[in-house]
């Protein structure tokens, strides 16, 4: 399973890459990864008025996009649309950060999982 990763380099500039989640256990029709550490979970609703200029993430976290798209621009200028059902590991907690923009006309719901 591939997920988006927004990370920062030594100069504090954020970039995108893909991370492959490895399956370590298979049981019947199910595949499982290792249990990843987490310290909390947030549920979020975002309206179409949501746009945040350059900002770092508040913590290292997984963002699980449930229904609408988000438009994320990394510090190097690359922009990605994070669609429904997609997962992003956000790690740009210092430096310039990224831009987050609302896409579409519907409420966006997401789940944030604070990663240890």
In words, what does this structure look like?
With 116 residues, the protein is an all-beta fold. The protein has a single domain (2-115), classed as Sandwich (Jelly Rolls), CATH 2.60.120. The chain has strands at residues 2-8, 14-20, 25-27, 30-32, 38-46, 51-55, 61-65, 70-73, 79-82, 87-90, 98-102, 108-115. It has a 6-stranded mixed β-sheet, with no helix packed on it. A 4-stranded antiparallel β-sheet has the order 6-11-8-9, with no helix packed on it. A two-stranded antiparallel sheet has the order 3-4. A hairpin with a 5-residue loop joins strand 8 and strand 9 (79-82). The protein starts with a strand and ends with a strand.
List descriptors.
6-stranded mixed sheet, 4-stranded antiparallel sheet, 116 residues, mainly beta, Jelly Rolls
